[in-house]
Amino acid sequence: MSLKIKDYKSITVLTGAGISVASGLRSFRGPNGLWSDPDTERLSRSQSFKEDPTSCWRFWGGFREQANAAKPNQAHLVLAQLESKIGPGQKFTLITQNIDELHQKAGSKNVVELHGSLFKTRCSASPPDGKCDLPLYREIESHADTVPHCPRCAATLRPDIVLFDEMLPAEAEWLSKKALRDCDLFIAVGTSGTVSPAAHFVQWAKYAGAHTVLVNLEAMNPPNRAFDREVLGPAEETLATLFG
């Protein structure tokens, strides 16, 4: 049974790394995922930018280069098209765990970047890590072979992404909670459902009375009973049929 956008007042979509696989980017889990690289965990901590900035920039700078070359796939485009069909009195919020900006490339407007963006750079000594006041800025250059330093305090620069031992951006967290509190349709796409706090989003949406749908390549194991419906298969194929 297909969903009709006009039947819902507030739609919240959560996307994970699985939605970008068809664009040529590796997911974190599964075959050939980023977790198959033994250095991923070590280079995904803020302390590593202080202890081994060269390896960190080689890793994240290389990922930035890949993401910059990637193009949105059909799943990204379907979500952008859905947002464009929102009428007066309706809301559409796209919360993404991804840092590749492919949703924005596809044309999505109201995007909450829960884990930041690879294409924004900040000083490692800026708040909350320090007191440097270098403004956040956009950058495409990968820095895969060099370590950039802050022009104000000389500390290492880093992508503005959320690493393992860091808090979520306050604004992104607030906007996510607001969207979940208000939604009557919640759709999770391409996410393992194991990373907090996003793993709890479906429960929060369910508590708000939303109809909940999982769109994923494979079923959750163990199943998450908070989802009313599972649509299994590649997101770039199944999302379009969900709203057919």
Describe the structure.
It is a single chain. With 244 residues, this protein is of the alpha/beta class. The protein has 2 domains: 1-25 and 72-115 and 168-244, TPP-binding domain (Rossmann fold); 30-69 and 118-161, 2-Layer Sandwich (SIR2/SIRT2 'Small Domain'). The chain has helices at residues 46-51, 53-69, 74-84, 102-106, 170-182, 201-207, 235-242, and strands at residues 10-15, 91-96, 111-113, 116-123, 137-138, 157-161, 185-189, 211-216, 229-232. The strands form 2 sheets. It has a 6-stranded parallel β-sheet, sandwiched between helices. Strands 5-4-6 form a 3-stranded antiparallel β-sheet, with helices on one face. Helix 3 runs parallel beside helix 7 (235-242) and helix 5 (170-182) runs parallel beside helix 6. The longest helix is centred in the first third of the chain and has 17 residues, at 53-69. The model has no long low-confidence stretch (mean pLDDT 91).
* Proper CATH architecture of the largest domain: 3-Layer(aba) Sandwich
Query: At the third CATH level, what is the topology name of the largest domain?
Result: Rossmann fold
Count of the separate structural domains: 2
Choose one word for the global shape: globular
- Structural category: alpha/beta
